[in-house]
Every structure is written in C-alpha cells, then in structure tokens.
Hints:
Layout: H1 32-44, H2 52-61, H3 63-70, H4 76-94, H5 104-118, H6 129-142, H7 148-171, H8 180-190, H9 193-204, H10 210-213, H11 216-244, H12 250-258, H13 262-285, H14 287-293, H15 298-322, H16 326-329, H17 331-334
Amino acid sequence: MTSPNTPAPGSELFTAPLWGDLEVRSAVHPGTEAGRERNLRRLRGRRLFADERAFEWYRSWDLEGLVGAVYPYVDDVGLDLCNYATTFMTVYDDQFEGTSATASAEAAAEVRTCLGVIDERTDVPATSPLTGIFAEIWHEWLRAGLSAEWHARVRTDWVYCLTSMAHERVALRTGKPLLLDQYLWLRRGTSYMPLFLDLIELAGGRECPRIAFHAPSLQIMRCITMDVVNYMNDVLSLHKEMARGDNDNIVLTLQGTYDCSLDEAISRVCASVREQVRRFTELHGRLPEMCADLGLSGEETEAVLGYGHGLECWIGGYDPWQRSSARYTTAFAQRPADQRWAFRMGRT
Length: 348
C-alpha cells in the first residue's frame, strides 16, 4: 500500500487549472450536513458496511457533499432521495471496479439480481445489502407522482446503467482502449449519469414537459452534461484506473485514437470540456426562446428552465467536489492497486 505521505501518480492534476473557469453557476444546498446525518443513519440500519473501517472509508468519499453541490435546489425530501440513490449507485459500481475481465459472467449474474427487482420477480435472491437498498430505491421511485412516460424512461435508464456494469467487464477482455463510440455508450451507463439527471425531476418535484424534453437543444444539453462530468472524472481518475488495467477512460480512448502521449490526450480532453461547456451555455441561453416557440405556458416554461438549471448545477458543482473527495485524492493511499477498490460488501 502506498504511504499517505507519498504523492500519488497524477496528484498534480487535482490542483491544475485543467479547464479553467467554465463560468457556470454553482451553489451548495443549505441542508447538506443535516442530509448527510440522515443518510448515514439510514445506511447504518441497512448493514451495508462490513465493519467500521468500511464505514469510515465510505464517509471519506463525501457523497453527501456531492449531492449538496449538484442538487442545491431540492427540498429535504428530495435531498434524501438523491443521497440514498447516490450511495447505491456509487457503492454498487465499486463492487465491480478492479475485478478482472474474466469476472464478466459473475458481474452479469449480480446485475440480473437487480433486474429481477425491476421485473417484480418474487424469486430474487438477497445477494447483499445492496440488493435490498436497490429494492427500496426502486419502489420509492415507482411511487413518484410523475408521468407514465417519465417512469418508462427511468425504467430504461436503470436497465441501461445496471447492465453497463457487466458490459464494462466484457470490454476489459480486449486489453485495448475503447473506440470513441464504444466509450461514449458504455461510459454514460457506467457513470449512472442518465439516472442522476432523472433525479433533477424526481427530487425537484417538477417534470420537464415532454415536448420540450425531446427538443434537440435540451437533449444535446443533457448529453453534454453527461460527457463533461465523465470527462472531468476520467482525467482525475486516470492514474488510478491505469493501475487497475481499466480501459473505460476518455484519455486512453483519445490517446489511442490520435496515437499521442498521455499529456497530449489530457490536453485534448480538457479542450473538449471547454468547448462542450461553451456549447452548453449557448443552448442554455436559448431555452426561453425555445419555450416561446413551442407555445409553452408559464408553468411549463419554469419547468424547462428548472431542468436546464439542474443540468448546469451538475457541470458547475461536480469538479469542485471531486477535487476534494478522498475517493479520488487519496485513492492510492487507501487501497492497493491490485485489490478491489471499494470495501467488500457485507454478504448476507
């Protein structure tokens, strides 16, 4: 295990002005700390953590701080929904990180357990506390008073993101960086970003009208948000993932595409972040005009603008959080590179 006093590979990136000032708004939810305590109490009761060390390791990630930074506009009920879902998505993802390519069948079997919950099967085995937590989340989301179309979209997004966990293991078999189209499809799923963006409506208590949600400009903004957050994460996770032999990283994809050095690939990623955020800002500014063109009511327009604001909060709030989270800043000191990155799940 690397000494905490030894600078980890890539640690200089955490203080570098990688993409400069993106000039997007950000804020922090005033109830972040109270929400943190509520979430930790709830998790304590679910036997998620194998021991106290695992619990403290989880706390060091500051996931509740992420939620407070990217959902600053929700009420306390919405904050709790976001915290619980973020815990599940992140800890569930960690159960697959650092596993070998030969574990793809095992990963697929684990994923099928959660798919069984979605399909409302009664024979779903309780393979871990995470299965029970996912069932809670799924049924909480089912009770949301949103449209049938929203629920259909969320069901599709859950299946997409969960199955991406297994497909990521399959992709490791190549031992090569992913091509860009492969990367974008897989990474959007493994990051759970579609679901994180679905929470804008669920936790915010206001659904984006479907005539506007499917507008090209809003769909482009949604894709930009997913990709920008993933690109930011990939740059700061690069050396950790290289040590594990992962290939689901935009830096490695661009290095392979352009046959260039890592430094040049990082520069290309940072330039892409800046350009995509510029495009996002341009489209964001046109949302009122789009709403007028579609003849939306005042209430519908507020919902569209609120959704746009929710996307902006992700772009503005994510990077400051990841630069201070021990999930990334002290990753090498926390766990050896050749073992599972996260703590092992407490099995039932």
